[in-house]
Amino acid sequence: MAKIKLDLHDIFNRGQTIETELHRVVEEAVGKRISLIEIIPGKGSGQLKKHVLRFLQQPRIKKLYHRIEKDDKNFGRIFVHFRH
Hints:
The chain is α+β, with helices and mostly antiparallel strands. The protein has one domain: Ribosomal Protein S8, Chain: A, domain 1. Helix content is about 35%, strand content about 20%. The chain has helices spanning about 15-30, 45-55, 60; strands spanning about 5, 35-40, 65-70, 80. A 4-stranded mixed sheet has the order 1-2-4-3, covered by helices on one side. The protein is globular, with a radius of gyration of 12 Å. The two termini are about 10 Å apart.
């Protein structure tokens, strides 16, 4: 199973860069028919995780993936599953 990993620790305080990177990985997953994206917003205050989840809930993005899974063992990790 192919997977893309996006670690947002380095760009946590640059809102537009975060959006750009999220768009890039979603487009890459769709284009290359990759079934899973692992996004690591980190634990912190939870604001970055909320930002990522809001991005994923946008209608034009939501139609591209199958489901979101919040890691129950690691609060700072989100999985986005694709069905191709």
